Amino acid sequence: MITEQQVYFFKTFGFLVLKNVLTPAEIKNINKEFLVGLAKMDETKMGTSVRKQYNWTNLGPDSPFTSSLLEDERFYGIAQQILGDDCVGVDSHANQYNGNRSPWHPDIRELGPDQFTGFKFTFYLGPVDGNSGALRVVPGSHCPGFSAEVEKVFLKDNNPGPDDDPGLAVNEVPAHICISEPGDAVIFDYFVWHSSWGGSKDRRMVSLQYYKNPKTPEEKEGMRKMVAFRKNFNKGFKRETKLYPDFWLANPNNNVVRTQWIEQLQKWGFIDAVNA
Amino acid sequence: MIQDNYRISDQEIALYKSFGFLVRRNVFTPEEMAKVNEEFDHRRASVVAEIDPEEERIFTQWPTRNPETPFTASLLEDPRIYVPMEQLLGEDSVLFQSNCNSYSWDVQNWHYDVGVTEIEMIKNVMYLQPTTANNGALRFIPGSNRNPLRDELTNMQLAKPRDEIGVFYEASGLSGEDIPCFIFESQPGDVVAWNELTWHAAFGGYKDRRSCTFNFIQHPKTSKQRAGVQDMVAGAAHSVKAQGTVGLQYHPTWLENPNNNSRRARWIKNLDEWGFIDAYNYGKTETK
């Protein structure tokens, strides 16, 4: 659980750093499972962007501990505090980055905050700082007005200006740097602008993702759009396994929370869309 | 006509407008900064001599437009300062305030400079010593010049005076250093310009941390903007008193404009029309 002030901080700035959420033994375990997943990767599965990213689901049988974190009270409890008791754990990924940066972007541009609410926990498996791939965020940029302003700034990597004024490199954009040690986690709103700079080969990151259960007509329409968006988005990753492996859907331990989530994901059409 | 050589790029303009501040590196040379520091030494000594030692000040401020600091005063009319400001605020904008500051406090808590939102003002600051995160560097909360973030930070009571603790700080256990921000680590010669509504702070100050400021204001066109200027004029005399500024903001020798600088002549005309000269120099609180 986090304090009221941490919720307030998150809602104001669009992100929150949590220290020592996972123990060294747990990080060791996650790393062990990470290596199993990584061993199944080869160059054909590496993303083609500057991130040079391998990305795979943690919901398969190779990573039972990492998979269980989505339902872990330390994460799900916080998600419930921020998104409501009936929020849904949607995804968990392992990522290995081999590029030296991730360009600036918000995770979702296609919807507005009146249509969709969700966030991601990220935790790095090694220490990271401003020059070694730590997450950079523009505080407050999850607000639509500010986000639209950030959109206007030329960025060398993914929104270049004219030849004589090509725009800013990742590290030239004024930002807050989320320095982190193994065991720390950063929560960030899908709408917040973020990036990383100075990463080297084998930068490891695990993410857990949660969505608010849509209630209003706008949110329900937003979820329909999100399903379509995620269907196309997933085509950008060269994954071998389904996003929701049969192992996870089978819910072998009859986890009550997972049962509810699977029902919800099916109701939204999410599983069919992203597994297609 | 704006001089092309000193113009900031469209990109820099977009960055200022998006984030509420703009960092410009190596605007002045080390030789120029040495000269500014030398003048600062002399003027500070004479200012300190004027102040009652019983006051035990931890902040000393004096206006730049002063015959004792001719090189620093000349920077007001240096195109490296005014050209970018004219790009951002209009060619008819006016440099209304410029000070040298010697700080000896360790914390300058989160705040914005003005509460007047009707008219845009930009402050330029250059530090005369290197700054780092733990050594007095200015910090900015990006985009905090606009709402909803601006008001949200007010609600959090980030701006409590240094001997008080705001509700959010008290309840969260966080301190000003924990507020997420961009940290402007700088070398002498670097200049940062910010919208005076943007939230900023500095931590880890030391005795005689030095800065020079150049504040520009838009030329008011609408009745709302004119009201904004009037609010600024109305608060000018109070600000001189509150800051303990030593000496006149507009020194008579500067007002004489001996070289007939056309830009200065325009500034003086506007400053007089709007009431800034009476307010800053003579403490008049009623606007013209």
Report on this model:
- The complex is a heterodimer of chains A (276) and B (288).
- Chain A is an alpha+beta fold and 276 residues long.
- Chain A has a single domain (4-275), classed as Jelly Rolls.
- Chain A is built from 9 helices and 10 strands.
- Chain A has helices spanning 4-13, 24-39, 64-68, 73-83, 144-151, 217-235, 246-250, 256-268, 270-275, and strands at residues 15-18, 53-57, 88-97, 101-105, 118-124, 135-137, 176-178, 185-189, 194-197, 203-211.
- In chain A, the strands form 2 sheets. Chain A has a 6-stranded antiparallel β-sheet.
- Chain A is globular, with a radius of gyration of 18 Å.
- The two termini of chain A are 35 Å apart.
- Chain B has 288 residues and is an alpha+beta fold.
- Chain B has a single domain (4-222), classed as Jelly Rolls (Sandwich), CATH 2.60.120.620.
- Chain B is built from 10 helices and 10 strands.
- In chain B, the strands form 2 sheets. In chain B, strands 1-8-5-10-3-2 form a 6-stranded antiparallel β-sheet. In chain B, strands 4-9-6-7 form a 4-stranded antiparallel β-sheet, with no helix packed on it.
- In chain B, helix 7 (223-243) runs parallel beside helix 10.
- Chain B is globular, with a radius of gyration of 18 Å.
- The A-B interface holds A 3-6, 8-9, 12-13, 15, 137-141, 143, 145-146, 149-150, 152-154, 161, 165, 167-168, 174-176 and B 9-11, 14-15, 17-19, 21, 23, 140-144, 146-149, 152-153, 156, 168, 171-174, 180-182.
